[in-house]
Amino acid sequence: MSWKEMLADRMPPDWAREIDVFEAQMLLRRDGKLDEKIFAESRLRRGVYGQRYDNGHRHDGIQSQTLDFPSGSLTKGPETMWDAPGMVRIKIPYGGVTPEQMDVLADLAEEYSDGILHVTTRQDFQLHFVHIEDTPDLMRRLASVGITTREACGNSVRNVTACPIAGVCRDEPFDVTPYASATMKFLLGHPDVQDFGRKFKIAYSGCRQHACGLVTMHDMGAIAVKKVVGEVEKRGFALYVGGGLGAVPHQAKVLEEFVSEEELLPMFQAVSRVYARLGEKKNRGRARIKFLVAKLGIEEFRRLVREERKVLPHDDRWTAYLKEVPAYREKPLKPASHLNGARHPEGFDDWARTNVNRQKQEGYAVASITVPLGDLTSFQARELGNICRRFVGDALRTTVEQNMVLRWVSEADLPAVYQELKKIGLGQAGAESIVDLTACPGTDTCKLGIASSRGLAGELRNRLLAKRGTLDESVQKLRIKISGCFNSCGQHHIADIGFYGNSRSVGSYKVPHFQVILGGKWVENGGSYGLAIGAIPSKRVPEFVDRITDRFVREKQPGETFQDFTIRIGKQELRGMLDDLMKVPSYEQDKSYFSDWGDPREFTVGDMGAGECAGEIVSLAQVELAAAEREVFEAQLEMDKSDFPIADERAFHSMLQAAKALIKMQFLDVREEPAEIVREFKTRFVETQLFHDRFAGGKFASYLFQRFEDPPAAFTKDSVRQLIEEAQLFIEAAYACHTRMTEKKPA
Fold first, then answer.
1. 543 Cβ neighbours under 8 A, 6+ residues apart
2. Is residue 584 located within the same domain as residue 452?
3. 444 with 485, same domain?
4. Which of 258, 317, 489, 683 has the largest CB neighbor count within 10 A?
């Protein structure tokens, strides 16, 4: 009997029908009867991605495959997607998962994947190396326990995230969980969210001061607030819109200071309709709602949303769920009891200090489970479900830091919970500390990965764990977050110390590098973003972490945060700390620089060629690109001095400098006038697509053109900061273009 037949009465009928439709589309595509673009949109909306295979420690180096394929049978060769497994993203609204669901997830990881459940930075699970012919049955088995992959990817509303301690947090005005759940159910498949130009991410937070919800870095977010209306205290939300990290981060703006719970869902719908109608559709690089809000301004955007709300047809679902909210409460499995003074297991006290927080409910605690790099084995997942059955019931959630939390642990049970977690390798201390690094998949499985974020995170974690007991308390509280490219899937912009992957050419070789980001603010829902101060070789990142943390301990003032410390000493001084680390020895002097963490293969771009001397040849273009990098950094210094017009001019000129560096590879006599540089760059590098790459196409070129064609009438910190981010990305793209043009092909 097939899974479809066995599970027919356990799946929601509409979900079952959608999976049947997807399976039919899949077979039509296999037989060449459905256009690949149409099918690609369909599979992405079902959470099915392509992935790479060429650089992952979880794989044996199979060559990455394209997802386009000719018609044929399931036995087609490795050139087809049928033999190139991909990734499936599984939506876990607000991170809530039950023991029964953990059992099914563990089974799926073993039967269809590589035995690993990966926890993402948006509380989802991902399964890698899944064959596409297995996806319909995988989806059916998930649907049978109330989980969907629908709209986990694609131009749609992604997973609705929420604070993982909502309902038990001592600082929240009320539990946001039922509202996050209602939002997911209301918007899932809603007609008004099917015509977006890009993805749309929503987050809920119970309070302003903590980071659990990260509302200000989302397309739309809600923070719980209460307000006295007349003589009645009302629940409601402060709504934010237009945030996002990605290549160019934007801080969300306040859409409404207070929206009542009755108006919450219609407001989400009104925003969706405005975004669908006015958002960019052709240029994907400008299609997120953050660009629409920036273009219109928050006042005009707010006006449009309010007008849209007035004409929305009434929907009973807006408030139908509210009658259940007053009674909503997780039921603890065991009665409350306090931790007694008995002798504790070895390691418990250290674990409890970092991984246990008391709930607002007397006698109960939240136990954080450290999941290194977000990777949970199928064995651990299954055993974790059993631990839940024994101690907390259904009170298990994923977190945005790729961990999990057990809620409603009776305090007296904490030693036993610790022992059970330790047995399955999940009893490590250090949750939400410097050893608890966040990293995106990077070059392991992501097609956009440039450098090995997971490899670097693993190396840093091991080094920091080895000396955790001697680290100053102020250092232990820091966050390190790593992305494999500029897209910030590892949330590097809001870390105390962040890194994103790039590369540089040294002679005939590529060397993996990471841009250093300092000054991000994790608290206050991702309160502010850091900026790149320079790129260093991947192999020197651990040395920099030691250097900056040691200096922080030596020079910090009483009560000073790391962010305040970086502001006080200034970017010029911070950049000076990188100068010697930016140097790369020759290949003959130290080959280790020419491979990435976790991957012994050389990060080369071709043969060095016969007769080349040990000294490195530095081209004119490389010199001028380095000058462009220096100039965009100087723009940051001017911005910090609030000289916004000069900062804007420096950032713009840094892009001109980088464009000119490329032009001179073809045409040395280009004049210095901006109009000529832009014209020559467009003709020689954009129209010919030389500037285009697999990461971003040619979208970074638009940053130069837009600033040239439409200079700002006024200068603000936000506008200048955005231009600096864009200039940095333009320069990175110029470096990549230079590498592609100069790399030597093997004979």
1. 581
2. yes
3. yes
4. 489
- The pLDDT score that the predictor gives to residue 695 is 60
- pLDDT, position 83: 53
Q: What are phi and psi of 94, to 5 degrees?
A: 50, 15
**Per-residue pLDDT tens digits for 714-738:** 999 989 999 999 999 999 899 888 8
- Does residue 375 share a domain with residue 272? no
* pTM reported for the whole predicted model: 0.85
Distance, in Å, from the CA atom of 684 to the CA atom of 660, rounded to the nearest integer, reads 11
CATH label of the domain that carries residue 193: 3.30.413.10
**467 by DSSP, 3-state: which?**
coil
Number of domains in the chain: 5
Is 561 among the domain residues? yes
- Give me the helix-helix angle, 99-112 and 378-391, nearest 10°: 170
- Tokens in use for 506? 């040294």
- The range of the structural domain enclosing residue 683 comes to 619-747
Q: Token pair for residue 415? A: 């030693």
Strands (DSSP E) contained in 348-469 are 356-358, 364-369, 375-377, 396-398, 404-410, 438-439
Helix (H) or strand (E) holding 453: helix 453-466
> Do 454 and 441 touch, CB atoms closer than 8 A?
yes
599-602 and 595-596 strand pairing = antiparallel
Tell me, yes or no, whether 389 lies in a domain: yes
Contact (Cβ atoms closer than 8 angstroms) between residue 80 and residue 68:
no
CB 573 within 8 A of CB 534: no
3 state DSSP class of 65: coil
Sheet of 253-260: strand order equals 157-162, 200-205, 220-229, 232-241, 253-260
Looking at residue 62, what DSSP letter applies?
A: P
**Distance (Å, rounded) from C-alpha 169 to C-alpha 358?**
9
DSSP 313-359: PP-THHHHGGGGGGG--PPPSS------SSPPPTTHHHHHHHHEEE-
The token duo for 444 is 């392991």
**For residues 131 and 82, what is the distance between their CA atoms, to the nearest angstrom?**
6
Q: Provide the token pair at 535.
A: 């790129």
| Cα end-to-end span (Å), the chain | 55
Which residues, listed in sequence order, are joined to residue 90 by a DSSP beta bridge? 125
What is the C-alpha separation between 699 and 282, in angstroms, rounded?
A: 11
1: Cβ contacts below 8 Å, ≥ 6 apart: none
CATH of residue 728: 1.20.120.330
Last residue of a domain, which of 617, 636, 660?
617
- Residue 668 CB neighbours (<10 A): 8
Confirm whether 151 is domain-assigned.
Answer: no
Span 75-102, pLDDT tens digits: 333 344 555 688 999 999 999 999 999 9
Same-domain pairing of 654 and 717: yes
Q: What is the sign of the dihedral through the CA atoms of 142, 147, 148 and 153? A: negative
Tokens of 628: 């462009």
Residues 372, 531: Cα–Cα separation, whole Å = 26
Residue 521: DSSP 8-state:
B
